[in-house]
Write a structure and sequence with these properties.
This protein is of the alpha+beta class. It has five helices and 15 strands. Strands 5, 6, 7, 8, 11, 12, 13, 14 and 15 form a nine-stranded mixed sheet that branches. The protein has a four-stranded antiparallel sheet with strand order 2-1-3-4. A two-stranded antiparallel sheet has the order 9-10. β6 (95-96) and β7 form a beta hairpin. α1 (3-11) crosses α2 (15-23). It is elongated and about 65 Å long.
Length: 217
């Protein structure tokens, strides 16, 4: 296993942060300084800032019903709270699988399993995600057709499957994961998203989990 991947899995930091720690000389492998790109064997001893690291014996994955107003980051951005302020300390090494923007809410998966995260987010797997969206006004039938046909954005065609799901509410299904894609797609047609809630991700469903609560898979 590559050293940066080992550090990320064992400590909960990102691989980029692990690379930075290696470059800053904060990582030791069997008591020796290391270089980027080194591999770790099962019997090797890895230390970060003088503390020994160990891979978790079992992976942990949870579903969090993220409330609006929280950011999917370990680092605060201004006064905005992070999702880790909702979770107990023993779950702070989990990393989000994909993200929800600050004002979006609903199903967020977090895990220590990097392989699971890759399986769920890599474009080749095309995992289905379903959202319930409330715009500031009712979408016209012409705009519903435009969205289902594909809307051109600055980073390419946005492909969403949208249908009514009640008064002033729409269900959107997608398999891409581009930044703020739903909001940008509707905005390009003159609609502001008032509420955006993810309810399904792959085979995982939010179900009746209360907002702000989490459950283990």
């Amino acid at each position: 296993m590559r050293l940066n991947k080992y550090i990320a899995h064992a400590s909960g930091i990102s691989r980029r942060s692990a690379d930075r720690a290696i470059q800053e000389g904060r990582v030791k492998l069997n008591g020796q300084s290391v270089d980027l790109g080194q591999d770790v064997s099962p019997n090797d001893k890895v230390e970060l800032d003088g503390e020994p690291l160990k891979l978790p014996s079992e992976h942990t994955t949870i579903i969090l019903n993220k409330p609006p107003g929280y950011i999917c980051s370990r680092n605060k951005q201004g006064r905005s709270p992070t999702i880790y302020e909702i979770l107990p300390a023993e779950l702070h090494d989990l990393k989000p699988i994909g993200r929800l923007d600050k004002m979006s809410r609903g199903l967020l998966l977090l895990t220590t399993d990097g392989d699971l995260a890759q399986k769920l987010t890599h474009p080749k797997h095309a995992k289905r995600k379903i959202y319930l969206v409330v715009p500031h006004k009712e979408l016209s039938s012409e705009d519903l057709e435009r969205i289902n046909a594909g809307v051109k954005l600055e980073d390419g065609i946005s492909r969403l499957a949208i249908k009514p799901a009640g008064a002033m509410r729409y269900q959107i299904e997608m398999s891409e994961g581009r930044n703020r894609q739903i909001r940008r797609t509707l905005s390009s047609l003159g609609y502001e998203v008032v509420d955006l809630k993810r309810v399904e991700f792959g085979e995982h469903s939010l179900g009746e989990l209360p907002e702000g609560e989490w459950s283990k898979l």
